[in-house]
Amino acid sequence: MATTIHSMSTTSTPLIDGKAPLRQSAAAASSQCVTLPPLPPRLPLQQNRVWNATGSCRKLARNVAVMATGEATPEAGPPDAEELIKPIQEAWEKVEDKYAVSSLVVAGVVFLWGSTGLISAIDRLPLIPGVLELVGIGYTGWFVYKNLIYKPDREALVEKIKGTYKDIVGSS
Fold first, then answer.
1. Alpha-carbon Rg of the chain, whole angstroms?
2. Burial of 16 (C-beta count, 10 Å sphere; 0-12/13-18/19+)
3. Do 17 and 34 contact (CB within 8 A), yes or no?
4. Cα–Cα distance, 122 to 131 (Å, whole number)
5. How far from the centroid of its chain's Cα atoms is residue 144's Cα?
6. Residue 79 and residue 88: Cα distance in Å, rounded?
7. Bridge-partner residues for 16, per DSSP?
8. Do 13 and 29 contact (CB within 8 A), yes or no?
9. C-alpha pair distances (Å), 32 with each of 14, 98, 120, 124
10. How far apart are CA 136 and CA 122, in angstroms?
11. What are the angstrom distances between the C-alpha of 165 and each of 38, 63, 104, 111, 160?
């Protein structure tokens, strides 16, 4: 039995790339190697650059238009800190009740932080996000049908928005 197995292992050789290999030892025959074909010869570096440069120039020539003028345009840099802070300081000086405004800003930040936590908690529940999405799609469809499709309904909505704006801001 041992001789049969030995004779079978020496006679059966694996095919590498579809070709029968030359005489190899038993250890080399058991490993399966795949060789890659050789790479084509590389172009000289200078020829490769010329080809890429001409291809880029052709592409740029089609997409770029240049206009020369006698004057250089000043570069627009990022705004200075004073330009950003000055209007805020002027608006803050006009406020009469600074304590109330500060409290409202802090309350707004706390509300935003809490609402993002609540929304992320609701989003992790299994069925709720899908149901809320369907409710939102349904309400949007109802609103469009009720207020935006017909001209008289659109005009009434615009008048209602303008009236609410005047109530909030006041007539100026």
1. 38
2. middle
3. yes
4. 11
5. 30
6. 14
7. 19
8. yes
9. 8, 80, 53, 49
10. 15
11. 75, 47, 21, 24, 9
User: pTM higher than 0.70 for the full model?
Assistant: no
Dist CA 145 CA 65 (whole Å): 48
pLDDT in tens, 32-68: 767 888 888 876 665 555 555 555 455 445 555 556 6
C-alpha separations of 159 from 52, 153, 166, 167, 171 in Å: 61, 10, 11, 12, 15
Kindly state the tokens that stand for 53.
């440069």
Q: How many residues does the chain have?
A: 172
Residue with tokens 């005047």: 166
In the numeric block, which tokens belong to residue 68?
Answer: 């020369």
Can you read off the two tokens belonging to residue 171?
């007539």
Rounded CA-CA distance 150/156 in Å is 10
